[in-house]
Prior knowledge:
Oligomer: single chain
Organism: Arthrobacter citreus
Family: Belongs to the PstS family.
Helix content: 25-40%
InterPro entries: ABC_phos-bd_PstS (IPR005673), PBP_domain (IPR024370), Phosphate-bind_PstS (IPR050962)
Pfam family, one: PBP_like_2
Keywords: Phosphate transport, Signal, Transport
Amino acid sequence: MPKPRPARTLALxxxxxxxxxxxGSDYPLGDEQRQAAENSTSTLxxxxxxxxxxxxxxxxxxxxxxxxxxxxxxxxxYSPDGSGAGRSALLAGAVQFAGxxxxxxxxxxxxxxxxxxxxxxxxxxxxxxxIAVAFNLPGIDxxxxxxxxxxxxxxxxxxxxxxxxxxxxxxxxxxxxxxxxAVSRADDxxxxxxFTEYLHEAAPDEWPDGPSGTWPGGLAGENAxxxxxxxxxxxxTEGAVTYADDSVIDDSMGTANLLVGEEYVPISADGASIxxxxxxxxxxxxxxxxxxHLDRTTTVPGAYPLVLVSYQIFCSAYEDPDTxxxxxxxxxxxxxxxxxxxxxxxxxxAPIPGSLAEQARAAIDSITTMP
Length: 371
């Protein structure tokens, strides 16, 4: 377990522990895990707790199920409280890992050294998913939208769906005069950070605000907690629009095709994977910290640049050797072909490209016990 920091509030640690304790039982996955335990040769046991990204939620459910069959005596717990909450919980020593749709920032890297030792914490890509711009317009399944128009929609500058900026990109589509209701995340969200980064880089004049996990204040619209919260709000509000991980979008909502170069690209896992292949490592990080900078202005055919790379954030070292074994075994499962296939089936995610998966495995293998 990472060393707790006295400066962190006990309330944060207690809240994370309370949320995770609800998952605890000998076989939280039921009979399948119980039967696997009776027949398993795995000697791995213990409790491994994480918190963070709600976008990772469906994938994490699949990973918990798959890992539970392989290692049925391990209790793997995850609380989808949002990326910011997950990073805070890890840096408070409340959990052994965090799920985050944004990599650690410079000030968090410094904090991580106090909890995880001199090597700090490692951002390891685990989940790649496109972010949908999803709307509730009955009878309309998709719309072509460039980044500037999306920015104007979420800034409240486009008031109705038949606005000329939308109509000009969608000839032949009968657009209603329904009012636009933009719905953003209320919590500190990695999905918000990725969305605002896309808008800022692809349409800087229309979206001057820098990337942030917190939605800019003063903008019109509604907000809700988590991916499920914004989707629920849009589902019950005709004319509403939001941004959310594609795993939580169903056929009841329409989605935007993004202008990339000279073509409009529909949302897809393949498009997300193409975009991530263009990403570069963030400079000046630890050798095994795989934070990625995505090119939001790519013109590569088929790329869908509104994508999030969600990370598993682990300490580079833990005090307890048993925790090291648990963390490494789980991390290796997540980035394995089996783990990535489970995520793809459950959450419509894109598999991690081969070279990136190799780097991730090497990073996980580097995790060690504190001296």
